[in-house]
Design goal:
With 293 residues, this protein is mainly alpha-helical. The chain contains eleven helices and no strands. It holds the Pfam family TPR_16. Keywords: Coiled coil, Repeat, Signal, TPR repeat.
């Protein structure tokens, strides 16, 4: 259907092209009019290089490329024609949009259909095709606006029922997406709140655990300190007792030695007193005895 629409548009440019006739152009047009686009393309390409060729050659060549399935070349030729004086900018942009859409380049198609609509705001077809492009891009609200605008521009359209069905489907889809977005937002908020709660709970657990560990460490340090103090006190007491023992032993030893010395001294004294010497004349002995019976 799209191909028939493109061919029918040629009637709008054929009359204007008659005054720019060239041999290559005429041969190309002959093949083209007999639905032989593959044969027409080389002649149209030749005609592009000839001076004074009809500006409509861009239209025919672009459509010929479209007919043989070379959509990229079709878009390229239509775009080049937009920069040439005397070409039908509205139709070139519209056809470029159709070729871009056929190769699933929906963004370029949207741009070209917008250009065609800007050139002629009353032209309904590019509005419908732009709606289809935006639908393929997932731009549902923009597509919905275009479908509605299309029915305003062409209220008697043969596709009215299908367009109205699409409008209803899009409205339902947009409403569903809005509800889904609200649901997702609410879900994300719940998840965020739960994550915050879990994070706070984890932080509290970590704080309590840190306090417990600190308390245990402090208690252990206090136990160690007390144990060290006890050991130190016990050691000091042992050292004191040992010192006292050593001192006592030393004192006892000194006392024992003193007594020995005293005994020796006493023994010597007794010996001296019982053998008093009077000189060279002899020794006088004293005998002690009790006069009491």
């Amino acid at each position: 259907m799209l191909k028939k629409r493109l061919i029918s548009l040629l009637l709008m440019v054929t009359i204007g092209s008659l005054c720019f006739s060239s041999e290559a152009y005429d041969k190309g047009f002959d093949y083209f009019s007999r639905n032989k686009p593959q044969d027409a393309i080389p002649y149209f390409l030749t005609a592009l290089g000839e001076p004074g060729v009809s500006p409509s050659v861009y239209m025919y060549l672009g459509i010929a490329y479209y007919q043989v399935g070379d959509y990229a070349a079709s878009v390229d030729i239509f775009k080049k024609g937009l920069d040439v004086s005397g070409t039908n900018k509205k139709m070139l942009a519209y056809n470029a949009g159709n070729s871009a859409y056929a190769m699933k380049d929906y963004k370029t198609a949207e741009q070209m259909f917008s250009l065609a609509s800007t050139a002629d705001p009353s032209f309904a077809s590019p509005v419908l095709n732009r709606a289809n492009s935006r639908l393929s891009l997932g731009e549902y609200e923009s597509a919905l606006a275009d479908y509605k605008q299309y029915l305003v521009l062409d209220p008697a359209s043969s596709q009215r029922r299908e367009v109205e069905s699409m409008i209803m489907a899009l409205q339902n889809e947009i409403a569903y997406q809005e509800q889904e977005q609200e649901r997702i937002a609410a879900e994300e908020e719940r998840i965020r709140a739960e994550n915050e709660r879990l994070a706070a709970e984890k932080a509290e657990q970590e704080r309590i655990e840190a306090e417990r560990i600190a308390a245990e460490r402090a208690a252990e340090e206090e136990r160690i300190r007390a144990e060290n103090e006890r050991i130190a006190a016990e050691k000091a007491e042992q050292e004191r007792l040992e010192a006292e023992r050593i001192a006592a032993e030393k004192a006892a030893e000194e006392e024992r030695r003193r007594k020995i010395l005293e005994e020796v001294a006493a023994s010597l004294q007794k010996t001296d007193s019982t053998g008093m010497n009077a000189g060279s004349e002899g020794v006088i002995d004293y005998e002690y005895g009790s006069e009491l019976d």
